[in-house]
Amino acid sequence: MGLYLNAKKPATLYKAERSRPYFVDKTLLLDELFPLVEAGNQFVCITRPRRFGKTVMANMVASFFGKSECASVFEGLQIQSRAEQCARHENQHNVIYISFYEKPSSCKSYEDYIGRVQRILFEDIRRAYPACRIDQNSEIWDILSLLYEEEEARFIFVFDEWDYIFHQEFVTQGDKREYLSFLGNLLKDKPYVELAYMTGILPIAKYASGSELNMFREYTMSTQHKYSDYFGFTESEVDMLYGRYAQNTAERRVTREGLCEWYDGYHTPKGERLYNPRSVVLALENNQLADYWTSSGPYDEIFTYVKENVADVRDAIAVMMAGEAVETNVKQYAATATELRTRDQIFSAMVVYGFLTCENGRVSIPNRELMDKFADMVLEEQAMGYMYRLAKESERMLMATKAGDTAAMEAILTQAHDTETGMAGYNDETELSAIVRLVYLAAREYYDVQREDKAGVGYVDYIFYPTVDQTADCIILELKIDHTPEEAIEQIKDRKYAQRFIGKLGEQLPYRGRILAVGIAYSKKDRHKKHRCKVEVLRERI
Protein backbone atom coordinates (compact mmCIF):
# COMPACT_ATOMS: atom_id res chain seq x y z
CA MET A 1 0.00 0.00 0.00
CA GLY A 2 1.13 3.55 -0.67
CA LEU A 3 0.06 7.14 -0.24
CA TYR A 4 -1.26 7.29 -3.80
CA LEU A 5 -1.24 3.69 -5.08
CA ASN A 6 -3.97 1.50 -3.54
CA ALA A 7 -4.06 3.75 -0.47
CA LYS A 8 -6.29 3.12 2.54
CA LYS A 9 -7.24 6.79 2.74
CA PRO A 10 -10.20 6.90 0.30
CA ALA A 11 -11.82 3.79 1.82
CA THR A 12 -11.39 5.14 5.33
CA LEU A 13 -12.91 8.49 4.40
CA TYR A 14 -15.80 6.96 2.48
CA LYS A 15 -16.55 4.58 5.36
CA ALA A 16 -16.74 7.60 7.68
CA GLU A 17 -19.06 9.35 5.21
CA ARG A 18 -21.51 6.47 4.98
CA SER A 19 -21.68 6.22 8.78
CA ARG A 20 -23.06 9.77 9.01
CA PRO A 21 -26.77 10.01 9.88
CA TYR A 22 -27.66 11.80 6.64
CA PHE A 23 -25.65 9.75 4.16
CA VAL A 24 -27.14 9.43 0.64
CA ASP A 25 -26.32 6.30 -1.34
CA LYS A 26 -25.05 7.36 -4.78
CA THR A 27 -23.05 4.22 -5.51
CA LEU A 28 -24.87 3.56 -8.79
CA LEU A 29 -22.40 5.99 -10.33
CA LEU A 30 -20.07 2.99 -10.27
CA ASP A 31 -22.46 1.08 -12.52
CA GLU A 32 -21.96 3.77 -15.15
CA LEU A 33 -18.19 3.47 -14.83
CA PHE A 34 -18.01 -0.32 -15.19
CA PRO A 35 -18.31 -0.29 -19.02
CA LEU A 36 -15.60 2.37 -19.24
CA VAL A 37 -13.20 0.34 -17.11
CA GLU A 38 -13.87 -2.79 -19.15
CA ALA A 39 -13.29 -0.92 -22.40
CA GLY A 40 -10.05 0.59 -21.08
CA ASN A 41 -8.28 3.85 -21.90
CA GLN A 42 -11.35 5.94 -20.98
CA PHE A 43 -11.32 9.49 -19.61
CA VAL A 44 -14.01 11.31 -17.60
CA CYS A 45 -13.84 14.81 -16.07
CA ILE A 46 -16.75 15.95 -13.90
CA THR A 47 -16.81 19.62 -12.88
CA ARG A 48 -19.03 21.06 -10.17
CA PRO A 49 -18.98 24.00 -7.72
CA ARG A 50 -17.31 23.44 -4.40
CA ARG A 51 -19.24 21.52 -1.74
CA PHE A 52 -21.21 19.52 -4.29
CA GLY A 53 -19.83 16.14 -3.26
CA LYS A 54 -16.92 15.78 -5.70
CA THR A 55 -14.45 14.54 -3.08
CA VAL A 56 -16.94 12.10 -1.53
CA MET A 57 -17.55 10.57 -4.96
CA ALA A 58 -13.83 10.43 -5.75
CA ASN A 59 -13.24 8.59 -2.47
CA MET A 60 -16.06 6.21 -3.36
CA VAL A 61 -14.62 5.42 -6.81
CA ALA A 62 -11.10 4.88 -5.46
CA SER A 63 -12.19 2.77 -2.50
CA PHE A 64 -14.40 0.52 -4.62
CA PHE A 65 -11.91 -0.30 -7.37
CA GLY A 66 -8.65 -0.12 -5.40
CA LYS A 67 -6.73 -3.08 -3.95
CA SER A 68 -6.83 -1.58 -0.49
CA GLU A 69 -6.38 -3.71 2.62
CA CYS A 70 -9.50 -2.12 4.08
CA ALA A 71 -12.56 -4.34 4.29
CA SER A 72 -15.32 -3.49 1.84
CA VAL A 73 -17.44 -0.53 2.84
CA PHE A 74 -20.12 -1.20 0.22
CA GLU A 75 -22.13 -3.93 1.92
CA GLY A 76 -25.83 -3.08 1.80
CA LEU A 77 -25.43 -0.22 -0.67
CA GLN A 78 -27.23 -0.01 -4.01
CA ILE A 79 -24.24 -1.05 -6.09
CA GLN A 80 -24.38 -4.52 -4.51
CA SER A 81 -27.45 -5.18 -6.64
CA ARG A 82 -25.00 -5.44 -9.57
CA ALA A 83 -23.50 -8.63 -8.17
CA GLU A 84 -21.75 -9.83 -11.32
CA GLN A 85 -20.02 -6.50 -11.97
CA CYS A 86 -19.07 -6.15 -8.29
CA ALA A 87 -17.43 -9.55 -8.33
CA ARG A 88 -15.31 -8.53 -11.31
CA HIS A 89 -14.32 -5.07 -10.12
CA GLU A 90 -14.60 -4.53 -6.37
CA ASN A 91 -11.05 -4.18 -4.97
CA GLN A 92 -9.64 -5.75 -8.14
CA HIS A 93 -7.76 -2.83 -9.68
CA ASN A 94 -4.64 -0.81 -9.08
CA VAL A 95 -5.85 2.69 -8.26
CA ILE A 96 -3.67 5.79 -8.21
CA TYR A 97 -5.62 8.37 -6.21
CA ILE A 98 -4.18 11.89 -5.96
CA SER A 99 -5.81 14.81 -4.14
CA PHE A 100 -4.29 17.71 -6.02
CA TYR A 101 -5.39 20.24 -3.41
CA GLU A 102 -2.70 18.88 -1.09
CA LYS A 103 0.62 20.69 -1.25
CA PRO A 104 3.83 21.00 0.81
CA SER A 105 3.46 23.26 3.84
CA SER A 106 6.31 25.46 2.58
CA CYS A 107 5.27 25.32 -1.07
CA LYS A 108 6.58 28.39 -2.88
CA SER A 109 6.82 27.18 -6.48
CA TYR A 110 5.37 24.83 -9.03
CA GLU A 111 8.49 22.72 -8.72
CA ASP A 112 7.79 22.22 -4.99
CA TYR A 113 4.19 21.30 -5.75
CA ILE A 114 4.66 18.84 -8.60
CA GLY A 115 7.92 17.51 -7.16
CA ARG A 116 6.05 16.21 -4.12
CA VAL A 117 3.53 14.41 -6.35
CA GLN A 118 6.28 12.79 -8.41
CA ARG A 119 8.33 11.69 -5.38
CA ILE A 120 5.38 10.07 -3.60
CA LEU A 121 4.20 8.29 -6.75
CA PHE A 122 7.70 7.02 -7.54
CA GLU A 123 8.13 5.60 -4.03
CA ASP A 124 4.70 3.95 -4.15
CA ILE A 125 5.52 2.22 -7.43
CA ARG A 126 8.97 1.16 -6.25
CA ARG A 127 7.54 -0.46 -3.12
CA ALA A 128 4.69 -2.17 -4.98
CA TYR A 129 6.96 -3.58 -7.71
CA PRO A 130 10.35 -4.25 -6.04
CA ALA A 131 11.42 -6.73 -8.73
CA CYS A 132 10.92 -4.33 -11.60
CA ARG A 133 13.90 -2.44 -13.06
CA ILE A 134 13.01 1.11 -12.00
CA ASP A 135 15.40 3.94 -12.71
CA GLN A 136 14.91 6.86 -10.32
CA ASN A 137 15.77 9.28 -13.13
CA SER A 138 13.03 7.94 -15.41
CA GLU A 139 9.78 9.79 -15.95
CA ILE A 140 6.74 8.37 -14.14
CA TRP A 141 5.01 7.52 -17.44
CA ASP A 142 8.08 5.63 -18.64
CA ILE A 143 8.10 3.58 -15.43
CA LEU A 144 4.39 2.78 -15.75
CA SER A 145 4.85 1.88 -19.40
CA LEU A 146 7.64 -0.52 -18.42
CA LEU A 147 5.39 -2.13 -15.81
CA TYR A 148 2.75 -2.64 -18.46
CA GLU A 149 5.24 -4.23 -20.86
CA GLU A 150 6.79 -6.53 -18.26
CA GLU A 151 3.81 -7.35 -16.02
CA GLU A 152 0.77 -6.06 -17.96
CA ALA A 153 0.09 -3.75 -15.00
CA ARG A 154 -2.82 -1.38 -15.57
CA PHE A 155 -4.18 1.41 -13.43
CA ILE A 156 -7.28 3.44 -12.68
CA PHE A 157 -6.40 7.08 -12.02
CA VAL A 158 -8.63 9.11 -9.69
CA PHE A 159 -7.66 12.79 -9.51
CA ASP A 160 -9.61 15.03 -7.12
CA GLU A 161 -9.59 18.83 -7.66
CA TRP A 162 -7.21 18.47 -10.57
CA ASP A 163 -7.41 22.24 -11.30
CA TYR A 164 -6.49 23.39 -7.76
CA ILE A 165 -3.08 24.53 -8.96
CA PHE A 166 -4.59 27.10 -11.33
CA HIS A 167 -5.86 29.11 -8.37
CA GLN A 168 -2.51 29.39 -6.58
CA GLU A 169 -0.59 32.67 -6.60
CA PHE A 170 2.81 31.02 -7.01
CA VAL A 171 1.86 29.41 -10.34
CA THR A 172 2.87 31.20 -13.56
CA GLN A 173 1.36 30.82 -17.02
CA GLY A 174 4.37 28.73 -17.97
CA ASP A 175 3.80 26.49 -14.93
CA LYS A 176 0.20 25.94 -16.01
CA ARG A 177 1.31 24.80 -19.46
CA GLU A 178 3.90 22.50 -17.87
CA TYR A 179 1.25 21.01 -15.58
CA LEU A 180 -1.06 20.27 -18.51
CA SER A 181 1.87 18.66 -20.28
CA PHE A 182 2.58 16.55 -17.18
CA LEU A 183 -1.00 15.23 -17.10
CA GLY A 184 -1.01 14.65 -20.84
CA ASN A 185 2.23 12.69 -20.74
CA LEU A 186 0.95 10.65 -17.80
CA LEU A 187 -2.41 9.72 -19.30
CA LYS A 188 -2.78 10.26 -23.02
CA ASP A 189 -2.39 7.23 -25.33
CA LYS A 190 -1.01 5.11 -22.50
CA PRO A 191 -1.98 1.41 -22.55
CA TYR A 192 -1.64 1.19 -18.77
CA VAL A 193 -4.65 3.50 -18.30
CA GLU A 194 -7.90 1.64 -17.63
CA LEU A 195 -9.81 4.73 -16.56
CA ALA A 196 -8.96 8.31 -15.64
CA TYR A 197 -11.63 9.87 -13.43
CA MET A 198 -11.06 13.56 -12.61
CA THR A 199 -13.02 16.17 -10.71
CA GLY A 200 -12.58 19.93 -10.69
CA ILE A 201 -14.39 23.25 -10.66
CA LEU A 202 -13.76 24.66 -14.12
CA PRO A 203 -13.80 22.55 -17.31
CA ILE A 204 -10.56 21.36 -18.89
CA ALA A 205 -11.22 23.40 -22.01
CA LYS A 206 -11.00 26.50 -19.83
CA TYR A 207 -7.28 25.86 -19.43
CA ALA A 208 -6.17 23.56 -22.24
CA SER A 209 -6.41 25.25 -25.63
CA GLY A 210 -4.35 22.56 -27.29
CA SER A 211 -4.52 18.78 -27.39
CA GLU A 212 -2.93 17.90 -24.03
CA LEU A 213 -6.13 16.60 -22.43
CA ASN A 214 -8.54 16.45 -25.34
CA MET A 215 -9.17 12.75 -24.69
CA PHE A 216 -11.39 13.61 -21.70
CA ARG A 217 -15.16 13.69 -21.90
CA GLU A 218 -16.27 16.65 -19.80
CA TYR A 219 -19.49 16.84 -17.79
CA THR A 220 -20.59 20.16 -16.29
CA MET A 221 -23.61 20.84 -14.08
CA SER A 222 -25.40 23.17 -16.48
CA THR A 223 -24.79 21.55 -19.87
CA GLN A 224 -24.61 17.74 -19.52
CA HIS A 225 -27.31 15.63 -17.88
CA LYS A 226 -25.15 12.50 -17.54
CA TYR A 227 -23.93 11.97 -13.97
CA SER A 228 -25.95 14.97 -12.76
CA ASP A 229 -27.97 12.97 -10.21
CA TYR A 230 -24.80 11.95 -8.37
CA PHE A 231 -23.68 15.48 -7.44
CA GLY A 232 -25.99 17.56 -5.29
CA PHE A 233 -29.20 16.31 -3.68
CA THR A 234 -32.41 15.87 -5.65
CA GLU A 235 -35.87 16.72 -4.31
CA SER A 236 -36.61 13.07 -3.52
CA GLU A 237 -33.30 12.66 -1.70
CA VAL A 238 -33.95 15.73 0.46
CA ASP A 239 -37.45 14.38 1.17
CA MET A 240 -35.88 11.11 2.32
CA LEU A 241 -33.32 12.90 4.51
CA TYR A 242 -35.95 15.13 6.06
CA GLY A 243 -38.07 12.09 6.88
CA ARG A 244 -35.06 10.59 8.66
CA TYR A 245 -34.51 13.90 10.49
CA ALA A 246 -38.18 14.12 11.55
CA GLN A 247 -38.06 10.58 12.91
CA ASN A 248 -34.84 11.07 14.88
CA THR A 249 -35.21 14.65 16.15
CA ALA A 250 -37.52 15.37 19.06
CA GLU A 251 -37.36 19.17 18.94
CA ARG A 252 -37.22 20.03 15.24
CA ARG A 253 -36.05 23.54 14.32
CA VAL A 254 -35.68 22.87 10.58
CA THR A 255 -38.63 22.68 8.21
CA ARG A 256 -38.75 21.05 4.80
CA GLU A 257 -39.74 24.41 3.32
CA GLY A 258 -36.74 25.96 5.04
CA LEU A 259 -34.34 23.53 3.37
CA CYS A 260 -35.81 24.52 0.01
CA GLU A 261 -35.55 28.25 0.72
CA TRP A 262 -31.99 28.07 2.04
CA TYR A 263 -30.25 25.46 -0.12
CA ASP A 264 -32.25 24.79 -3.31
CA GLY A 265 -31.97 26.79 -6.51
CA TYR A 266 -29.61 24.74 -8.68
CA HIS A 267 -30.78 22.44 -11.44
CA THR A 268 -29.74 19.88 -14.03
CA PRO A 269 -29.95 20.57 -17.80
CA LYS A 270 -33.29 18.71 -17.75
CA GLY A 271 -34.66 21.08 -15.13
CA GLU A 272 -34.46 18.77 -12.09
CA ARG A 273 -33.86 20.72 -8.89
CA LEU A 274 -30.61 20.30 -6.97
CA TYR A 275 -29.69 21.26 -3.42
CA ASN A 276 -26.26 22.07 -2.00
CA PRO A 277 -25.55 18.70 -0.30
CA ARG A 278 -23.06 19.88 2.32
CA SER A 279 -25.38 22.60 3.57
CA VAL A 280 -28.41 20.28 3.75
CA VAL A 281 -26.50 17.68 5.76
CA LEU A 282 -25.06 20.23 8.19
CA ALA A 283 -28.44 21.92 8.67
CA LEU A 284 -30.01 18.58 9.63
CA GLU A 285 -27.09 17.48 11.80
CA ASN A 286 -27.01 20.83 13.63
CA ASN A 287 -30.81 21.16 13.71
CA GLN A 288 -30.44 24.71 12.42
CA LEU A 289 -30.83 26.53 9.12
CA ALA A 290 -27.73 28.66 8.64
CA ASP A 291 -24.98 29.59 6.24
CA TYR A 292 -22.69 26.59 5.77
CA TRP A 293 -21.30 27.62 2.40
CA THR A 294 -17.85 28.61 3.59
CA SER A 295 -15.83 29.23 6.69
CA SER A 296 -14.01 32.21 5.16
CA GLY A 297 -15.07 35.86 5.31
CA PRO A 298 -18.72 36.81 4.85
CA TYR A 299 -18.44 38.25 1.37
CA ASP A 300 -14.85 38.09 0.10
CA GLU A 301 -15.33 35.19 -2.31
CA ILE A 302 -18.19 36.86 -4.15
CA PHE A 303 -16.49 40.25 -4.26
CA THR A 304 -13.45 38.59 -5.87
CA TYR A 305 -15.49 38.48 -9.06
CA VAL A 306 -17.62 41.59 -8.67
CA LYS A 307 -14.66 43.91 -8.05
CA GLU A 308 -13.28 43.30 -11.55
CA ASN A 309 -16.02 45.53 -12.99
CA VAL A 310 -18.38 46.86 -10.33
CA ALA A 311 -20.01 49.43 -12.59
CA ASP A 312 -21.02 46.83 -15.17
CA VAL A 313 -22.62 44.35 -12.74
CA ARG A 314 -23.92 46.51 -9.89
CA ASP A 315 -27.44 47.17 -11.19
CA ALA A 316 -27.91 43.54 -12.20
CA ILE A 317 -26.90 42.40 -8.71
CA ALA A 318 -29.39 44.84 -7.17
CA VAL A 319 -32.12 43.31 -9.33
CA MET A 320 -31.07 39.76 -8.43
CA MET A 321 -31.11 40.67 -4.74
CA ALA A 322 -34.75 41.65 -5.24
CA GLY A 323 -35.40 38.07 -6.35
CA GLU A 324 -35.40 38.63 -10.12
CA ALA A 325 -33.40 36.81 -12.79
CA VAL A 326 -31.19 38.76 -15.19
CA GLU A 327 -30.44 37.95 -18.82
CA THR A 328 -26.80 37.24 -19.63
CA ASN A 329 -24.65 35.16 -21.95
CA VAL A 330 -23.10 32.53 -19.69
CA LYS A 331 -20.02 30.77 -21.04
CA GLN A 332 -18.72 27.73 -19.24
CA TYR A 333 -15.13 28.59 -20.18
CA ALA A 334 -15.13 31.98 -18.50
CA ALA A 335 -11.77 33.55 -17.66
CA THR A 336 -10.19 33.14 -14.25
CA ALA A 337 -10.82 35.76 -11.59
CA THR A 338 -7.79 37.88 -12.45
CA GLU A 339 -8.84 38.12 -16.09
CA LEU A 340 -12.52 38.94 -15.70
CA ARG A 341 -13.60 42.07 -17.47
CA THR A 342 -17.10 41.97 -18.93
CA ARG A 343 -20.44 41.45 -17.22
CA ASP A 344 -20.91 38.12 -19.01
CA GLN A 345 -17.47 36.87 -17.97
CA ILE A 346 -18.05 37.81 -14.34
CA PHE A 347 -21.47 36.17 -14.16
CA SER A 348 -20.18 33.11 -16.04
CA ALA A 349 -17.47 32.58 -13.44
CA MET A 350 -19.99 33.07 -10.62
CA VAL A 351 -22.27 30.42 -12.15
CA VAL A 352 -19.43 27.92 -12.47
CA TYR A 353 -18.39 28.52 -8.85
CA GLY A 354 -21.97 28.15 -7.64
CA PHE A 355 -22.63 31.73 -6.49
CA LEU A 356 -25.28 32.18 -9.18
CA THR A 357 -27.52 29.73 -11.01
CA CYS A 358 -28.41 29.92 -14.70
CA GLU A 359 -31.61 28.78 -16.39
CA ASN A 360 -32.82 29.60 -19.89
CA GLY A 361 -30.22 32.31 -20.39
CA ARG A 362 -31.02 34.10 -17.13
CA VAL A 363 -28.93 34.16 -13.97
CA SER A 364 -30.17 34.58 -10.42
CA ILE A 365 -29.11 34.14 -6.80
CA PRO A 366 -30.02 30.52 -6.07
CA ASN A 367 -31.16 30.59 -2.45
CA ARG A 368 -31.17 32.37 0.88
CA GLU A 369 -27.75 31.04 1.86
CA LEU A 370 -26.18 32.82 -1.12
CA MET A 371 -28.52 35.82 -0.79
CA ASP A 372 -27.02 36.41 2.66
CA LYS A 373 -23.53 36.35 1.11
CA PHE A 374 -24.49 39.04 -1.38
CA ALA A 375 -26.08 41.08 1.40
CA ASP A 376 -22.88 40.89 3.45
CA MET A 377 -20.90 42.09 0.44
CA VAL A 378 -23.17 45.06 -0.15
CA LEU A 379 -22.99 46.08 3.51
CA GLU A 380 -19.17 45.94 3.55
CA GLU A 381 -17.99 47.21 0.17
CA GLN A 382 -18.14 50.95 -0.47
CA ALA A 383 -17.25 50.18 -4.09
CA MET A 384 -20.85 49.02 -4.54
CA GLY A 385 -21.86 52.69 -4.66
CA TYR A 386 -25.54 53.41 -4.24
CA MET A 387 -26.16 49.81 -3.13
CA TYR A 388 -23.74 50.29 -0.24
CA ARG A 389 -25.32 53.63 0.75
CA LEU A 390 -28.82 52.18 0.62
CA ALA A 391 -27.81 49.22 2.76
CA LYS A 392 -26.12 51.49 5.29
CA GLU A 393 -29.37 53.44 5.64
CA SER A 394 -31.38 50.25 6.16
CA GLU A 395 -31.20 50.26 9.96
CA ARG A 396 -32.49 53.83 10.02
CA MET A 397 -35.20 52.93 7.48
CA LEU A 398 -36.44 50.05 9.64
CA MET A 399 -36.55 52.28 12.73
CA ALA A 400 -38.41 55.02 10.83
CA THR A 401 -40.96 52.49 9.58
CA LYS A 402 -41.66 51.19 13.07
CA ALA A 403 -41.99 54.76 14.32
CA GLY A 404 -44.32 55.70 11.47
CA ASP A 405 -41.91 58.48 10.49
CA THR A 406 -42.92 58.69 6.84
CA ALA A 407 -40.97 61.91 6.29
CA ALA A 408 -37.74 60.14 7.20
CA MET A 409 -38.69 57.13 5.07
CA GLU A 410 -39.36 59.31 2.03
CA ALA A 411 -36.15 61.25 2.50
CA ILE A 412 -34.07 58.06 2.69
CA LEU A 413 -35.67 56.56 -0.41
CA THR A 414 -35.57 59.72 -2.47
CA GLN A 415 -31.97 60.52 -1.60
CA ALA A 416 -30.73 57.02 -2.36
CA HIS A 417 -32.90 56.19 -5.36
CA ASP A 418 -31.41 58.85 -7.60
CA THR A 419 -30.15 58.96 -11.17
CA GLU A 420 -27.06 56.95 -10.19
CA THR A 421 -29.11 53.76 -10.05
CA GLY A 422 -29.35 53.81 -13.83
CA MET A 423 -31.55 50.73 -14.14
CA ALA A 424 -32.86 51.81 -17.52
CA GLY A 425 -32.91 48.22 -18.74
CA TYR A 426 -35.40 47.10 -16.10
CA ASN A 427 -39.07 47.91 -15.66
CA ASP A 428 -40.17 50.31 -12.94
CA GLU A 429 -41.64 47.62 -10.69
CA THR A 430 -38.37 45.69 -10.72
CA GLU A 431 -36.36 48.83 -10.04
CA LEU A 432 -38.52 49.85 -7.09
CA SER A 433 -38.46 46.33 -5.67
CA ALA A 434 -34.64 46.27 -5.89
CA ILE A 435 -34.36 49.60 -4.08
CA VAL A 436 -36.78 48.54 -1.34
CA ARG A 437 -34.93 45.26 -0.83
CA LEU A 438 -31.67 47.15 -0.31
CA VAL A 439 -33.12 49.84 1.92
CA TYR A 440 -34.54 47.21 4.28
CA LEU A 441 -31.43 45.01 4.21
CA ALA A 442 -30.88 45.37 7.98
CA ALA A 443 -34.26 43.77 8.58
CA ARG A 444 -32.82 40.33 7.77
CA GLU A 445 -31.14 40.36 11.21
CA TYR A 446 -34.55 40.42 12.91
CA TYR A 447 -37.00 39.15 10.29
CA ASP A 448 -37.59 36.46 7.74
CA VAL A 449 -38.32 38.74 4.78
CA GLN A 450 -40.42 37.05 2.12
CA ARG A 451 -41.20 38.48 -1.32
CA GLU A 452 -44.50 37.81 -3.09
CA ASP A 453 -45.64 35.54 -0.29
CA LYS A 454 -49.11 34.00 -0.34
CA ALA A 455 -51.26 35.94 2.09
CA GLY A 456 -55.00 36.37 2.49
CA VAL A 457 -56.54 36.28 -0.99
CA GLY A 458 -53.43 37.25 -2.92
CA TYR A 459 -49.68 37.72 -2.88
CA VAL A 460 -48.10 40.49 -0.84
CA ASP A 461 -45.03 42.28 -2.22
CA TYR A 462 -43.01 41.94 0.99
CA ILE A 463 -43.85 40.50 4.38
CA PHE A 464 -41.57 40.60 7.44
CA TYR A 465 -41.93 37.69 9.87
CA PRO A 466 -40.24 38.35 13.26
CA THR A 467 -37.61 35.71 14.05
CA VAL A 468 -35.73 37.11 17.06
CA ASP A 469 -38.54 38.61 19.12
CA GLN A 470 -42.11 37.37 18.63
CA THR A 471 -43.41 40.62 20.20
CA ALA A 472 -41.68 42.70 17.50
CA ASP A 473 -43.71 44.60 14.92
CA CYS A 474 -44.98 42.49 12.02
CA ILE A 475 -44.66 44.34 8.71
CA ILE A 476 -46.65 44.02 5.48
CA LEU A 477 -45.24 46.14 2.66
CA GLU A 478 -46.93 46.88 -0.67
CA LEU A 479 -45.30 48.79 -3.55
CA LYS A 480 -47.15 50.96 -6.07
CA ILE A 481 -46.14 52.67 -9.32
CA ASP A 482 -48.23 55.68 -10.39
CA HIS A 483 -50.58 55.06 -7.48
CA THR A 484 -50.75 56.38 -3.95
CA PRO A 485 -49.47 54.77 -0.75
CA GLU A 486 -53.04 55.03 0.54
CA GLU A 487 -54.11 52.71 -2.29
CA ALA A 488 -51.36 50.30 -1.28
CA ILE A 489 -52.69 50.27 2.30
CA GLU A 490 -56.23 49.61 1.05
CA GLN A 491 -54.99 46.65 -0.97
CA ILE A 492 -53.35 45.20 2.14
CA LYS A 493 -56.68 45.49 3.99
CA ASP A 494 -58.95 44.35 1.16
CA ARG A 495 -56.89 41.23 0.45
CA LYS A 496 -56.56 40.37 4.14
CA TYR A 497 -52.78 40.02 4.06
CA ALA A 498 -52.68 40.38 7.86
CA GLN A 499 -54.10 36.85 8.17
CA ARG A 500 -50.48 35.61 7.84
CA PHE A 501 -49.89 36.96 11.34
CA ILE A 502 -53.34 36.42 12.85
CA GLY A 503 -54.07 32.93 11.57
CA LYS A 504 -57.32 31.20 10.78
CA LEU A 505 -60.08 30.58 13.31
CA GLY A 506 -58.73 28.58 16.21
CA GLU A 507 -55.14 28.77 14.97
CA GLN A 508 -52.55 29.96 17.49
CA LEU A 509 -49.73 31.89 15.81
CA PRO A 510 -46.71 33.15 17.81
CA TYR A 511 -46.80 36.75 16.53
CA ARG A 512 -47.93 39.11 19.31
CA GLY A 513 -46.51 42.40 18.11
CA ARG A 514 -48.20 45.17 16.21
CA ILE A 515 -49.13 44.55 12.59
CA LEU A 516 -48.00 47.44 10.38
CA ALA A 517 -49.29 48.06 6.87
CA VAL A 518 -46.69 49.98 4.83
CA GLY A 519 -47.40 51.54 1.45
CA ILE A 520 -44.56 52.87 -0.75
CA ALA A 521 -45.22 54.56 -4.07
CA TYR A 522 -43.64 56.82 -6.65
CA SER A 523 -44.58 58.28 -9.99
CA LYS A 524 -42.75 57.44 -13.20
CA LYS A 525 -43.47 60.96 -14.40
CA ASP A 526 -41.37 62.45 -11.62
CA ARG A 527 -37.80 62.49 -12.94
CA HIS A 528 -36.51 62.81 -9.35
CA LYS A 529 -38.42 59.64 -8.41
CA LYS A 530 -39.71 61.19 -5.20
CA HIS A 531 -41.30 58.60 -3.00
CA ARG A 532 -44.40 58.76 -0.86
CA CYS A 533 -44.90 56.48 2.13
CA LYS A 534 -47.67 55.65 4.57
CA VAL A 535 -47.67 53.46 7.67
CA GLU A 536 -50.86 52.30 9.38
CA VAL A 537 -51.27 50.10 12.46
CA LEU A 538 -53.65 47.23 11.67
CA ARG A 539 -53.33 45.63 15.10
CA GLU A 540 -51.84 46.82 18.37
CA ARG A 541 -49.42 44.67 20.34
CA ILE A 542 -51.14 41.81 22.14
Give a description of the structure:
- It is a single chain.
- The chain is an alpha/beta fold and 542 residues long.
- The chain contains 20 helices and 15 strands.
- Helix 8 packs parallel to helix 10, helix 12 crosses helix 18 and helix 16 packs antiparallel against helix 17.
- The longest helix is centred in the first third of the chain and has 19 residues.
- The radius of gyration is 28 Å and the shape is elongated.
List keywords for this structure.
39% helix, Rossmann fold, 15 strands, alpha/beta, 20 helices, 5-stranded mixed sheet, elongated, 542 residues
How would you concisely characterize the structure shown here?
The chain has 542 residues and is an alpha/beta fold. The chain contains 20 helices and 15 strands. The longest helix is centred in the first third of the chain and has 19 residues, at 110-128.
